[in-house]
Every structure is written in structure tokens, then in C-alpha cells.
């Protein structure tokens, strides 16, 4: 398919200077920034926190934290102290050691970040879990990873089926006082009396960092393991793409349960010693504009759904806030519509810079970095040091303007190290030996800009969150009234996609509005609110292959009123 490109709009940098820097760029140039270069050893927590605490940035604010009940800030020195204390709590109250998995399952609070970096200081691999997950989702992730400890809050404790997780030896509970046992530890109480000093565990670049679970179109969510080496690309993209500078105040709105919230919520900016704002609590346009104003945020990284919600709240609102500190605005996670770029330009007075990457890539890959002219609707170009292209299904590169699989030459610094416990799944990402195949379809224009077209598989991106239809379907099948279920993403103006379920009911069950509401609630309470179908359509029968697999492709074409395509594998 051949597609015409839109006109480009100029960026705000001197292209010539910028290009000089990136000419012949090699990743090993970045190593110089880290202790690795001097002694062959490294630790993300040291590079992001202690290194600055031991420099003239010691008293600079590392973290501004705010939610409706708390408003706090921590300097790099204080962050060093609190993360040392957290590391000491883990040492005193568990056998956790390098390479063990500890999960953090809680809303954003300063303690989340203390325990994240505290665990990293011990060389523990951290699995962040989104706070909206319910029992099944929590169980699957803890079980698959063989986690031995978890940090959580009293409110979320009920959702962790500890009786089915014998490997989980220690549960660190943050917040109000709790009845401690040998297994349940009062984190805040122990933190208050822990020592401020800790001997960091020095690691190699290939040692583990974070384990983010993410969804594909089939099977349970898979654990994407990232290693310390990711810091090289996270550091460099913070410079080139986020354009972070010494005095910036930076806000990334993503939750650390998702990869953006770790890689760019804290790691990338703190590697540069830049002050980070963390907002707890719920989204509201007033809160968000208020945060931008109050903290004089200069670099802001968010997502299309959030921008569309702000657009929806009306442009008059913006006039009440002084957003004068803002210098650079970026987006990730879903297609950024040209209308949103235009809104950014007209209302925020900044062009929103789109960035493309995935949990598996560990860092930004294809971006509208400031030196590039933005073509609204395009994700930008591969950043220096990254080779991206479009390949056909055999792994052969196709000419510009031809749609195909968005692929990356494997071996970039932040590339996932493995899929936890699943070598076959890891291998299945690679075509013709060298190409990592993203699962996205796109085309490249003749200037090397990439244009997103859609997912090739059935993965749903709803409000920027990646949901696997299989997980939702499995949960639906546990409902007593449901016989069969097929789940698709339905296009939605605000959320990008919403989850729609097609359901056939067991014999004798009548489809009613109450039943529909009950099924939605069942998924919401069993799996996660963001994974619950917003729409349900009852059908007598669902389209299936002869081997009994539900054909989501046909459901999608029903929904979109499109031709159903090849039905030769469908049962009679
Ligand atoms: O489909 C692409 C979409 O998000 C997927 C990756 O999701 P996840 O692993 O949760 O990571 C999200 C943020 C790093 C991709 O396969 N996606 C990500 N960025 C964009 C995007 N789709 C369109 N435009 C983007 N800029």
C-alpha cells in the first residue's frame, strides 16, 4: 500500500550542531558516564542516586512527591539515606540476595521509590505491579517469576493469595501499623530504625534490573527481563529525546507498574541528576495543569489518552494556569493523532513530540527528537545507534511507503535480556536471525520517518495500557454464565481503543442488562479495572476455527463492518 506523507514542521534546534554530535555514534561512548567505565562495576541505584548524593548535587531535590494527603520532597542525599535504609530492612528481614525477585505492588508514594532503589542496591530484580491488578493477575505474575518477597499496602494485601504462593517468604507492608508476623513485616516501622549506611552490591552490565510483565495476543502475560545495561540507552535518550538539562523539573505521568514509569519515570531523569515530580492520586485536568504550574515543570512526558482527556476538558481551563516553565512535551504508548499535535501547538504552545518503544525494547527507539522536524502523525525516526526498518513476514526489508512489520536490528543496549522462563517465546520475537519484530505494522517514508498503522497481533492498547485478550477471555470463561468469549479492541476517540467482549452464554441463560453489568464487575474485581470490557455483545455462537480457536479477526470485522477475509479455516 502506498501512502502520501504530511508536510514537516520545523523543530527548535540547530540541526547542524546536533548532527555533528550524533555522527558515527557508538553506544560505548556513553559508558564513560558511569562507574562501569572506571571499575567495571555498576548499579542503577548508585548511578541514579548515590553518585549525585556524593557530588555537588547532594542537596538538590531528586524527588518532589504530592498526593491529596502528602506533599514531600527529597534531596539526592536524603534519597540515598532512605534507599539505604530500605536496603537494610530487606537485609535484616529476609534472605533476599542478588538476582532474587521482589515485587512492588502499591500506589505511587515515596516508599515505593525507596523500596525500588533499596532493592536495586542489593542487586535484587524488581517486579513492579500496577496497583489496579486483582487476585488472578497478581498471582500469575508472582508465581511465574518465582518471587520470594513483595512490598505492598494493607489495602492491597487481600489481593495477594499468599496461601497459594509458598515461595513468597516475606511481605513488607507499607503504611499504617499492622500486626507483624514472621512473614508480614511492618516496613515503615523497620525503616524508621534502620541504619543510614549500606554497602551497595556491585553488579555487571548484564545483571538483572527490572522484570516487567506485559501481554501478548496469546497465553498469559510474560516477564520481560531488563538488565543494568539499559541505563546506557536510558541515559542517552534522556539527553537526546527528553532533552533533559541540569535545571529541568521533569514530570512523567506513567505509573511504575508499566515500563515507562520505571525507565522514564525515574531511571532516565535521575541518571542525569534532574529533579523528578511524582504525582499520586487520580487524574483530573485541574490537578494536572496545577502540577505543571506549581512545580514549574519544564519537560513533560505523557500519553495520547491523557492529552485527549485534557483536550476534552476544554481549552478555557488552560488559561487559569501559568505553564510558562514548559519547554518540551512528549508522548508515548499509542498513536498520537495529528489533531492532538495541533492542540499542543495551539493551546500548550508546544508541539508534542511522539516517541515509540515497547516494554521489550527497554528504552525509546523511534522518536521525534527535538532536532527533527515533526511530521504530525509520524512517530519520528530511529534514534542514532538504532537501526529500524520495515520487513515482510520472511524478514526481508521492503521499500519506503510499503506497509509491513516494524523491526529493529537486534543488539541495542536496552534490549530485553530474556522472557522469564520462556526461551521459546523470547526466540519467537526474532526473524531471520537479526531482526527483532515488534508486532506493530507501520511504513517508513523516504526520509526515514515511521508511520504507525496498527498491531499485527490482537494486543489491545486501551488508554495507553497494553492488555492481552487471552487474559480477559480466560477470566470471562470463569463466569458461571459464560460459555465462550472473544475479546477485541474497539476504536475509541479518547482511549484509543476500548475492550469489547463478544460472549455466548450457557444453555438456558438469558442475556440481560444485569448479567452484562455482573460480567463486567466480575472481570474488574477478578483481573483489573483497566482490563474489564467496557462493551459486551451477546451472540448465540462465536466464529471459531475447526480446531476450536475463537477468530478474533472475524469479531473485529463484524465490529468495524469490514469484509471478514479468508474464512476457509472457520468451522461450519
Ligand atoms: O503498539 C505499540 C504501542 O504500544 C506498544 C507497546 O506497549 P508497551 O509494551 O505497553 O509499551 C508502551 C510504552 C513504552 C507498541 O507495540 N505504542 C507505543 N508507542 C507508540 C505506540 N503506538 C503508536 N505510537 C507510539 N508512539
TrEMBL record:
Pfam families xrefs: AMP-binding, AMP-binding_C
Record GO terms (molecular function): acetate-CoA ligase activity; ATP binding
Ranges for domain AMP-dependent synthetase/ligase: 57-418
UniProt lineage: Bacteria, Bacillati, Bacillota, Bacilli, Bacillales
InterPro entries linked: AMP-bd_C, AMP-bd_C_sf, AMP-binding_CS, AMP-dep_synth/lig_dom, ANL_N_sf
PROSITE patterns in the record: AMP_BINDING (PS00455)
Domain of life of the organism encoding this protein: Bacteria
Enzyme class: ligase
Known EC number: 6.2.1.1
Family, similarity comment: Belongs to the ATP-dependent AMP-binding enzyme family.
Cellular component aspect of the GO annotation: cytosol
Name of the molecule in the record: acetate--CoA ligase
GO BP field: acetyl-CoA biosynthetic process
Species this protein is from: Kurthia sibirica
Transmembrane spans: none
All copies of domain AMP-binding enzyme C-terminal, residue ranges: 471-549
Record keywords, A-Z: Acetylation, ATP-binding, Ligase, Nucleotide-binding
Amino acid at each position: 500500500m502506498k501512502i502520501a506523507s504530511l508536510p514537516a514542521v520545523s523543530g527548535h534546534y540547530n540541526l547542524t550542531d546536533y548532527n555533528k554530535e550524533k555522527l558515527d555514534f557508538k553506544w560505548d561512548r556513553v559508558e564513560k558516564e558511569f562507574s562501569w567505565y572506571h571499575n567495571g562495576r555498576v548499579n542503577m541505584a548508585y548511578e541514579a542516586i548515590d553518585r549525585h548524593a556524593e557530588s555537588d548535587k547532594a542537596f538538590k531535590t531528586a524527588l518532589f512527591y504530592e498526593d491529596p494527603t502528602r506533599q514531600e520532597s527529597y534531596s539526592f542525599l536524603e534519597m540515598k539515606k532512605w534507599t539505604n535504609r530500605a536496603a537494610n530492612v530487606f537485609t535484616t528481614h529476609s534472605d533476599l540476595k542478588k538476582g532474587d525477585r521482589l515485587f512492588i505492588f502499591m500506589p505511587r508514594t515515596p516508599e515505593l521509590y525507596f523500596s525500588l532503589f533499596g532493592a536495586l542496591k542489593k542487586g535484587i530484580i524488581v517486579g513492579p505491579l500496577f496497583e489496579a491488578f486483582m487476585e488472578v493477575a497478581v498471582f500469575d505474575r508472582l508465581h511465574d517469576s518465582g518471587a520470594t518477597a513483595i512490598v505492598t499496602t494493607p489495602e492491597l494485601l487481600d489481593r495477594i493469595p499468599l496461601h497459594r504462593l509458598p515461595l513468597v517468604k516475606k511481605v513488607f507492608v507499607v503504611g499504617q501499623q499492622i500486626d507483624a508476623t514472621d512473614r508480614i513485616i511492618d516496613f515503615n516501622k523497620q525503616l524508621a530504625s534502620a541504619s543510614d549506611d549500606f554497602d551497595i552490591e556491585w553488579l555487571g552490565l548484564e545483571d538483572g534490573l527490572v522484570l516487567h510483565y506485559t501481554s501478548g495476543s496469546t497465553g498469559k502475560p510474560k516477564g520481560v527481563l531488563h538488565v543494568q545495561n539499559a541505563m546506557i540507552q536510558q541515559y542517552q535518550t534522556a539527553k537526546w529525546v527528553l532533552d533533559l538539562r541540569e535545571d529541568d523539573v521533569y514530570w512523567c505521568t506513567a505509573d511504575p507498574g508499566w515500563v515507562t514509569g520505571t525507565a522514564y519515570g525515574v531511571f532516565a531523569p535521575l541518571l542525569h541528576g534532574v529533579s523528578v515530580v511524582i504525582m499520586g492520586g487520580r487524574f483530573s485536568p485541574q490537578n494536572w495543569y496545577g502540577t505543571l504550574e506549581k512545580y514549574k515543570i519544564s519537560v513533560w512526558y505523557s500519553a495520547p489518552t491523557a492529552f485527549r482527556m485534557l483536550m476534552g476538558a476544554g481549552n478555557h481551563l488552560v488559561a487559569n494556569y501559568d505553564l510558562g516553565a514548559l519547554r518540551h512535551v512528549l508522548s508515548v504508548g499509542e498513536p498520537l493523532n495529528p489533531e492532538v499535535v495541533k492542540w499542543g501547538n495551539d493551546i500548550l504552545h508546544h508541539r508534542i513530540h511522539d516517541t515509540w518503544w515497547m516494554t521489550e525494547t527497554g528504552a525509546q527507539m523511534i522518536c521525534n527528537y527535538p532536532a527533527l522536524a515533526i511530521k504530525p502523525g509520524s512517530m519520528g525516526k530511529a534514534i542514532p545507534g538504532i537501526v529500524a526498518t520495515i520487513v515482510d513476514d520472511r524478514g526481508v526489508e521492503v521499500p519506503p511507503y510499503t506497509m509491513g512489520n516494524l523491526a529493529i536490528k537486534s543488539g541495542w543496549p536496552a534490549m530485553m535480556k530474556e522472557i522469564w522462563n520462556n526461551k521459546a517465546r523470547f526466540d519467537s520475537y526474532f526473524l531471520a536471525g537479526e531482526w527483532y519484530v515488534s508486532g506493530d505494522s507501520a511504513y517508513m517514508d523516504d526520509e526515514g520517518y515511521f508511520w504507525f498503522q496498527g498491531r499485527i497481533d490482537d494486543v489491545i492498547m486501551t488508554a495507553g495500557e497494553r492488555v492481552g485478550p487471552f487474559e480477559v477471555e480466560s477470566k470471562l470463561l470463569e463466569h458461571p454464565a459464560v460459555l465462550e468469549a472473544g475479546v477485541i479492541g474497539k476504536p475509541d476517540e479518547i482511549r484509543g481503543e476500548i475492550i469489547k467482549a463478544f460472549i455466548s452464554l450457557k444453555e438456558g441463560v438469558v442475556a440481560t442488562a444485569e448479567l452484562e453489568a455482573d460480567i463486567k464487575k466480575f472481570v474488574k474485581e477478578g483481573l483489573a479495572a483497566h482490563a474489564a470490557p467496557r462493551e459486551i455483545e451477546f451472540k448465540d455462537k462465536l466464529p471459531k476455527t475447526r480446531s476450536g480457536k475463537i477468530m478474533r479477526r472475524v469479531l473485529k470485522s463484524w465490529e468495524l463492518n469490514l469484509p471478514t477475509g479468508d474464512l476457509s479455516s472457520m468451522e461450519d
